[in-house]
Request: fold
Amino acid sequence: MKTGILCATHLAVAAAAWTVMACSASSDDGSDGASGAANSGGSGDTGGSGSGARGGSGGGIPTDPTETSDGLYGEVHEGQYHLGPVDFDETEWHNACAPGGGYANALRDATGLGGEYLAGVSNSFADGGGVCDACIQITTATGRSIVARVVTYGATNEPGDIDVSPSVYDALDTGEYPRSMTWQFAKCPDTGTLRYEFQTEANPWWTSLWVRNPRVPLVSVEVRSANHSSFFTLRRETDGTLNDDGGFGEGEFTLRLTALDGQVIDDTIPGFTGGETLESDQQFE
Reply:
């Protein structure tokens, strides 16, 4: 899948202690011949509201595939599924939603929904990077279904086609051809709390981050900080990063995350260092 561009129309915490995950960000797919799955979209390097944050996501991440979601959003899209492959090792193609080095190891369990349950969609749904890290539910014409995380996007034969990881392909495939299916944006299974992955070059005067592991697709992310006395909407880049070209400024800041189903989280964070990943104590319901 060659990288392309998704938009909000399709997807239409005062901290006591924060866990810094052991990963850094620095940013810059193949198929069975049917769709191709995304290569780079990188830029540079790598509910409710609440106060307080802690390390740890609480509870375990499921390891078995999730067949159906308890929340589906928007239109149902039709097409075929193809073995990209879409994978964390990027054996064929770079994942458009990842930094240049790929998804950090510390993020893979949550991002992969406890395994490597991954998908790539067409450029038609890229939303300028807004599709990154959203989940979709895939249902085949033979009645099989699975929930997968979108980590890339690019060119496909038809707008509704998707590329999938080997784990997703194995869960869906019964030898049928064509491999007809429908997919829809979906609530992810519970894989812990939100993560904020800052690009390595991020600083108080130019700030850029990914919001990882949202259970519900994001519509917008805003910040209130030393440089913004009221909430300011962050600019989405094609690799999924959220950017403030003037920077957050120094010290504490609050992120306001709005999900597709209307949930809002206010997360207050004492500060950040470029290249680090912070684990929140919050998540959409």
